[in-house]
Amino acid sequence: LVYTAVAGNSTPQLTPNQLSGHVGKVSAVGKVVGPIRGDSHSPQGLRFGLKNIKGTSAVVPVVYRGDTPPELFAEGRDVVVNGSYTNGRLAGSGILTKCPSKYQAASPSA
Length: 110
Description:
Blueprint: H1 2-6, E1 13-14, E2 24-38, E3 46-51, E4 60-64, E5 78-86, E6 89-97
Parallel strand pairs: 1-2, 4-6
Antiparallel strand pairs: 2-3, 2-5, 3-4, 5-6
């Protein structure tokens, strides 16, 4: 594990505003922006945008081809997209949805 990280074979995890100037494999963490179009099994892929979860950022276009996205995948959902970033576009090969509600404090009872 240490050798992989030291040898430069690890995949960086970046937000959409950090992708500029990066080329190659990446795990992009962001919020899904619609419209969501297409199908992950078609040659055109599933298309959507990705922006920073907090703060402002440009929307990075994503073309995802692969397994059917997780059931919780939807506009406004926080996700991690694994893939390759080139020419201002993320070619996704894997999607993980994040579930922020699990980690929010419970509201106090009245």
